[in-house]
UniProtKB/TrEMBL annotation:
Pfam families hit by this protein: EPSP_synthase
Binding site for 3-phosphoshikimate: 32-33, 37, 178, 180, 331, 358
Pathway(s) the chain acts in: Metabolic intermediate biosynthesis; chorismate biosynthesis; chorismate from D-erythrose 4-phosphate and phosphoenolpyruvate: step 6/7
GO biological process: amino acid biosynthetic process; aromatic amino acid family biosynthetic process; chorismate biosynthetic process
Name listed for the protein in its UniProt record: 3-phosphoshikimate 1-carboxyvinyltransferase
Amino acid sequence: MKTDHAPSSVRALTVHAPRAPLSGSIHVPGDKSISHRALMFAALARGTTHITGLLEGEDVLRTADAMRALGADIIRDGVGEWTVKGCGLDGLREPDDVLDMGNSGTAARLLSGILASHGFTSVMTGDASLRGRPMKRVMDPLAATGAVFLSRQGGRLPLAIQGNGDPAPLSYRLPVASAQVKSAVLLAGLNAAGETRVEEPVATRDHTENMLRHFGATVRVEPMGAGGRVITLQGRPELVAQDIVVPGDPSSAAFVLVAGLLVPGSKVVVQGVGLNPLRTGLFTSLREMGADLAISNERVEGGEPVGDITVTAGALHGVDVPATRAPSMIDEYPVLAVAAAHATGQSRFRGLEELRVKESDRLAATVALLEANGVKVDVVGDDMIVHGTGGAIPGGGLVRTRMDHRLAMSAIVMGLAASSPVSVDDTAFIDTSFPGFVALMNSIGAGLAA
Ligand SMILES: O=C(O)C1=C[C@@H](OP(=O)(O)O)[C@@H](O)[C@H](O)C1
Ligand SMILES: C=C(OP(=O)(O)O)C(=O)O
C-alpha cells in the first residue's frame, strides 16, 4: 500500500537565537496516542463516530489508511474533523495489500493486536526506522492467542500475521513498561471469549483503557504493588460509536514550553493541553528544576483532563529524575536534556533503556545532540548525566536527526537558546507528530527560516 504520508524531501534548517522574547497564546495539534486509538476503536465499533481535534500527522494518517484498508469508511470533513463508519468487532476484512505504517511504532504495535485477532492474513511494513524497531515484544504475547507471525530476523518488520478469529484470552505481565504492548494485548482481547488480564509493574499511559470504556467495554483497573496496575477486559463487548474530542498533545506542547523557558524574557500560553497524570512527568521534572509553569482553566474534555499552560522564562537548576517517572515522560527526554543543558549544575535521568528502541536510539542521539553543541554528557548504565552550562549552551554544531521527529524539534529548541547557530540535517520527520511546528514557533517569534 503506497501512500503519500511520508517525508518526501530532506529539509535542513539552521536555527539562530531570536532577537526578542517568545510570546503569544497558541494551540498545539491533537494528542498522537489518542488520535491513533480514536481511529482504531471507531473502526471496530458499530455506528458512526465523529472525531474533533484529530492529529493530522503522518503517523496518524497511516493508521487511517490501514483502518480503511481493513474496511472502515473514514472521511475527513475539515481540519481535525473526521467521521468514521465502523465495521463492528467481527466486521473487518482482509486487506488486499501490504499495510505500510510509515514511521509509527504505535500504529504498528497496536494494529498487530487487531490483526492477530481476526481470521485473515495480513502483512505490515514501515519505513527504515520502523523496520529497525523490535516487534517481538508484541509477537510473543499475541502468539499465545493462536495467531501465527512470520517476521524478519530479530522480530523486525515486514511482518506477516495469520490471525485467529477465535483468539484465546491472555493473562500477561508486561516485561517492559510499554503502553503499546499493553494496548496490543487488550485489542486482541476484544475478540477473545472471556477475560483478558494485563499486569503492568509500572503504570503506563491509559488512553486505551479510557477509550475502551468510552466505547462501552467493561474494563477494571486495580492497583498492584508500588505504582503498578492490573487491567482486566471482558471480551467480545458491544462497542458502540461515540464522539471523541482529542486534547492537545502534551508531548508536542513540551517543545514550545521548553523554548519558552529558555529564551530570555519569554511568556507563552499553550491552550487545551492534555493533562492525563500518566503523561505529565515532564512538567513535574521541569518544576523540580525551578520552572515557572502555571496551569489554568482546568477542565475535562472527551474524558481526559485538559488545561492551559503558561510558561515564563527563568533560570533552571539540575534535577534527578527517577526511573519510575520514565513512562509518564518517555518521549520528552531529548527536550528535557536540552533544558538540563541550559540549567545550572548536573542533571541525572535514570532508567532510560527504552529510549534505545524509539524512532532512533534516542539515548545515543541525545548524547550526540548535546556533544555536538558543546555540552558535556555522560551515560552510566541506562542513566544519562547532563552537565548544565548555566545558561550558556555554546551551540554551533550539526545535529543528525536520524528519522526522529523528537530529535529534530529538540535540536531546534536548542538552537533558539544557544550562543551560536545550530544546524539540523533534516526537519521533515517533524510532520509525523507535529505538522506546522516551524510555522507555529514562528507565530510566537522564533524567527525560523520557513
Ligand atoms: O501507546 C502509545 O501511544 C505510545 C507509547 C509509548 O511507547 P512505548 O509503549 O513503546 O513505551 C510512546 O513512546 C509512544 O510515542 C506512544
Ligand atoms: C516513540 C514515539 O512514537 P512511536 O513509538 O509511535 O513511533 C514518539 O512519538 O516519540
